[in-house]
Write a structure and sequence with these properties.
The structure holds 2 protein chains of 2 kinds. Chain A has helices at residues 27-37, 42-45; strands spanning 3-5, 19-21, 56-60, 63-64, 80-85. Chain A is of the alpha+beta class. In chain A, strand 3 (56-60) and strand 4 form a beta hairpin. In chain B, strands 4-5-13-10-11-12 form a 6-stranded mixed sheet, with helices on both faces. In chain B, helix 4 links the parallel strand 6 and strand 7 (150-155). Classes of the chains: A alpha+beta, B alpha/beta.
Chain lengths: 100, 431
């Protein structure tokens, strides 16, 4: 299963867990499963309209999903999904949330 | 006076002072908040004038108290009237803020002195950074000064001079496979698991405030007035933002007359996400994969891009992208016209200035300040192959007269070569 690295400010939702194993074959599905396990965390990642928050960056195996397929970027069983506060090269691109 | 707290730039939530850089609520960036520095402007001006000849003369306006352990004397660099370059560009009142005259030859010494003072205050024992080179040099040198171990993370393939400088001060240098943006992401992850001060990550709200001193100094050096235009290089966009913030504070505190400054931003065309957004008239900044010789500006996802864009637009400035060829030409133009050898980032700034002047965006009588943020020897690879060969002669007067003198004929006797910048129009009249 893919794992998600949780940034410090969001560990309040994961009972302090730094990494969480999730089900899903895209970033969007992984976020849905994360929300299922830890209700409330999705609203910290996505805007109400399903776009990634302005100050959240997501990387799959080190690649910024904005330079890949956005939230539709595929994830494999070994993938590491990193959620990073976007000051680490932040931007404000609305990426459409496309649920599976 | 030190900051009294941190505030989220996005949702406005207040946070206590500490090594925090994002809002616990919305992950927005945090900004230092001060008690009102109001009061008598004359008193504040006198305190500044009586302060040290470093950036710490502005301690009243910085988020942390002066810390002698990290003082290498950064700041108060020359503001140089640039008559030759000004003449070439048709600008009568052009000034260069030569910040290559800092302890490690770039403006990063400013932000590092402030950031490391904060890091020490918070009790960190190891100092680190994600860097495109200049910041690593500054962290390494200041770490040596403060007897603190330093570890700097760089994308592979930077200029040799920048690696050498970090190494000689004793830093552990980690070259990371990937772009700066990937290095930065790694540093965020490390900072969350290990108690290190990453100056541009977990102490960023303090560190970045050091950039304001480039605004204060220009105003003070102009006799406590603001210029009409400034041209600032942009990587993350933070420096432009902080210079504009400084100008705003000086007006609010009554240290200068209210005056509209047009703030222009410069990027390399090969990494110009902010310029692209400016040209497209949007506030959406699309990440790019950097491809430019201006490595120190090669940030494809600028953290403060949108805020920088807002400053540029609201002040009536412009964002200009400069090709690699223009960067090299501009580095040579600046060196040959003013005797200032800047690195590629300075070539970007001068390239943007040339574009602004050529397009008539700047009135010839306007007071213009271009920020030269780093020194040329660190990126000598960029120009070395464009320079003329040496003249090689035997040790005879005849050889000198046969081979050397003819080459100097292009300069009128006694005028030297300063009036003939590379690529400039021939000098007009007697100046």
């Amino acid at each position: 299963m893919p794992t998600v690295r949780i940034p410090t400010p969001l560990r309040q939702y994961t009972q302090g867990a730094r990494t969480v194993s999730v089900a899903g074959s895209t970033v969007a599905e992984a976020i849905e499963d994360l929300e299922h396990q830890y209700p409330g965390i999705k609203a910290r990642l996505l805007e109400g309209d399903g776009h990634l928050h302005a100050f959240v960056s997501v990387f799959v195996d080190g690649e910024d999903i904005r330079l890949a397929g956005g939230l539709a970027t595929p994830v494999g069983a070994e993938s590491e999904i990193s959620v990073i506060p976007a000051m680490a090269g932040g931007d404000h691109v609305p990426i459409p949330f496309r649920p599976a | 006076m030190p900051a009294i707290g941190l505030q989220c730039r996005k949702c406005g939530r207040q946070h206590d002072l500490g090594p925090f850089y994002v809002c616990a609520e919305c992950l927005g960036p945090l900004e230092a908040v001060y008690a009102d520095a109001g009061g008598n402007p004359e008193t504040l001006r006198a305190r500044i004038a009586g302060g040290p000849r470093t950036l710490w003369r502005y301690a009243d306006l910085l988020p942390v108290a002066y810390d002698p352990a990290v003082d290498l004397g950064a700041g108060l660099t020359p503001l140089v009237p640039a008559r030759n370059l000004g003449q070439a560009l048709g600008l009568r009142h052009l000034y260069l803020k030569n910040d290559s005259c800092n302890p490690t030859w770039s403006f990063k010494d400013r932000v590092v002195e402030v950031g490391m003072a904060a890091a020490r205050q918070f009790g960190f024992k190891v100092v680190a950074c994600a860097s495109t080179g200049n910041l690593a040099n500054a962290v390494a040198a200041h770490g040596a000064r403060a007897s603190m171990p330093t570890c700097v993370f760089l994308p592979r393939g930077l200029e040799r001079g920048k690696l050498l400088l970090s190494a000689v001060y004793g830093a552990t240098i980690v070259e990371v496979e990937g772009t700066y943006d990937q290095v930065n992401r790694l540093c965020v992850e490390i900072s969350e698991e290990h108690p290190w001060a990453f100056v541009n990550v977990n102490v960023r709200p303090y560190y970045s405030e050091g950039g304001k001193t480039l605004g204060y100094e220009v105003a003070e050096q102009l006799g406590w007035r603001l210029p009409d235009h400034v041209v600032v290089p942009m990587a993350s966009g933070s420096l432009l933002l902080k210079i504009a913030k400084a100008f705003g504070e000086l007006q609010r505190f009554g240290l200068v007359e209210d005056h509209a400054v047009r703030v222009h931003g410069a990027q390399a065309a090969g990494c110009a996400p902010i310029v692209t957004a400016f040209q497209e008239g949007t506030d959406v900044i699309r990440p790019v994969q950097p491809r430019t010789i201006a490595h120190s500006l090669a940030i494809g996802t600028p953290a403060d891009g949108r805020d920088a864009l807002e400053v540029i637009r609201s002040t009536g400035g412009r964002a200009e992208g400069v090709t690699d060829a223009e960067i090299v030409e501009s580095m040579r133009l600046l060196a040959a016209s003013e005797g200032i050898f800047t690195e590629t980032a300075g070539g970007v700034t001068i390239g943007a200035l040339r574009r602004l002047a050529a397009s008539g965006r700047i009135d010839e009588d306007a007071t213009v300040v271009a920020y030269i943020t780093g020194m040329g020897l660190k990126t000598q690879e960029a120009v070395e192959e464009t320079l003329p060969e040496t003249v090689q002669i035997p040790s005879s007067l005849r050889a000198f007269e046969a081979h050397v003198l003819p080459r100097l004929d292009r300069f009128p006797a006694g005028t030297g070569n300063a009036a003939r910048p590379v690529g400039a129009e021939p000098a007009r009249g007697g100046g």
